Amino acid sequence: MEMRELRYFVAVAEELHFGRAAERLGIAQPALSRALAGLEGRLGVVLLERSSRRVRLTDAGTVLLSEARAILAAAEAAARRTREAAERQPRIALAVKAGTAGELLAKVLDAYAAHPGACAVDLLLCEAHEQRERVCSGQADVALLHLPFDAVTGLDTEALLTEGQVVVLPGDHPLAGRTAVSQAEVTAAPGPPPARWPAPDGSCPEGPGVAVRNLTQLFQLIALGRATVVLPASAAVDLRRDLVAVPVTDAPPVTTVLAWLPESRSRPVADLVRVATTL
């Protein structure tokens, strides 16, 4: 398989439309169709079921989509690291879940910037399930993850912070004036069911609550009375004025960790981890 073919296939698989995919890639639609037909012929499988009305991924196509994304991401990461080595200006790519651990993250970045020999840190703001994937694919050198919510299998980790959880509610909610609540009280309170976050593979579990992918979206839905959520206290530091955060006394603690690939030999990553663990 050629990288060009994989890029073509990913575009069609994401758009599920040959015309839009060809426009996105900047090529003619017949050339795109021929390239994918050739790929299917060499693999000996059908990747896309085509009809006059729709394009649909087959089971084989679904597998190749996941593999192709990982291959393209790894190639991009390899090119980035190669350029950095040539420039002799190393950089760290740090994957973080947008809107979380803001105060801790700021302290870590400030402390590392003051460290002798510190290099530039590029922040990759991710949605709920993406940080580990970015590290495993090589797009990120290190990630901030939150246990027990994020999977850390296959990664080395260092714990930075353990904290309690809070329930985020509209300001007029019956529990909004409380100084603390229990999980049972949150469950029994009137209102919508808890929001559903993506699993590590990006899929949302089944359930009655609304599916969300980031905190901005979630807080908007809570303010509208469409969702509730229990999350780490640090994620609710800078809440909108129409929301309140109430500590949940018996919610399990959440531990924020730095995570990286075990085979990493990056001195800047080692320095960042060492500085962060002293805070």
TrEMBL record:
Residues 1-58 form the HTH lysR-type domain. It comes from the Bacteria. InterPro entries: LysR_HTH_N (IPR000847), LysR_subst-bd (IPR005119), WH-like_DNA-bd_sf (IPR036388), WH_DNA-bd_sf (IPR036390). The keyword DNA-binding applies. Signal peptide: none annotated. Keywords: DNA-binding, Transcription, Transcription regulation. Belongs to the LysR transcriptional regulatory family. This is LysR family transcriptional regulator.
